[in-house]
Amino acid sequence: TQLLEQSPQFLSIQEGENLTVYCNSSSVFSSLQWYRQEPGEGPVLLVTVVTGGEVKKLKRLTFQFGDARKDSSLHITAAQPGDTGLYLCAGGAGRRALTFGSGTRLQVQP
Amino acid sequence: GAGVSQSPSNKVTEKGKDVELRCDPISGHTALYWYRQSLGQGLEFLIYFQGNSAPDKSGLPSDRFSAERTGGSVSTLTIQRTQQEDSAVYLCASSNPTGNNEKLFFGSGTQLSVL
After folding, report:
1. N or C, which terminus of chain B has less Cβ within 10 Å?
2. CB contact (8 A) between residue B43 and residue A100
3. DSSP code of residue B56
């Protein structure tokens, strides 16, 4: 069974602060995705990384896939209240369904 | 439709009753997934349909859970003899898998409450 552990589980910060969320596994994944979910809605894809060591930037968000393709991180610079939500990582392995992490709930206070 | 549609959005039922949850995927998407999410937690995989292949049912928690996908489109998740621990948000997603870059489009979910 492939498992993805996210840390921290909860994070409450002030507007303007930086933060990093981690996604770790003992399994190797062919791809790693990050989703954000707001209350009452389904998750929405932010980014997909497929190459070990890959770094992708999406405005203030920086995503990194570990060299061994077992872990990933999401770094947010100068967080805004609009960044508030549940962040989920998801690992892909061939034709199998995506395995989702346990989630990190982020609250950005104005 | 423009997105994945799930119905009902909310379902309250009594313990022991059967429930059916419906998912209308994005037209043309060959893959369809059901996940379950407990309050504020991650997503628990339930079942995965891909084209005409046999579905991956490895995530179904018990034989009270079943799902079908008719005509490669609409899917129904059925829970028989519901229990209180079945209370959760049931999310459906569809996609058109292309190599390693599969993007899942999720519906807004069905909030199931078993009293």
Report:
1. N
2. yes
3. B
Q: Write out pLDDT tens, residues B43-89.
A: 999 999 998 889 999 999 999 999 999 887 999 999 999 999 999 99
DSSP B15: T
- Give me the residue label for tokens 């947010």: A76
Residue of B52, B94, B104 best to disrupt the A interface, most CBs of A under 10 A = B104
Closest CA to A105 of B13, B97, B66, B39: B39
Top residue of B4, B50, B102 to mutate, by most chain A CBs within 10 Å, is B102
Locate B12 and state its tokens: 């309250």
Q: Which of B5, B2, B1, B3 is nearest to B91 (CA)?
A: B5
Place of tokens 């933060």: A19
| A53-103 pLDDT tens trace | 999 999 999 999 999 999 999 999 999 999 999 999 999 887 778 899 989
Distance CA B16, CA B24 (A): 26
Find how far residue B37's CA is from the centre of its chain. 11
Q: Using a CB-CB distance cutoff of 8 angstroms, which residues of chain B are in contact with residue A45? A: 103-104
Average pLDDT estimate for B3-22: 97
Q: Would you say the C-alpha torsion A78, A12, A63, A88 has a positive or negative sign? A: negative
Mean pLDDT of chain A: 93
Contact residues, chain A, for B101 at CB < 8 Å: 31, 48, 50
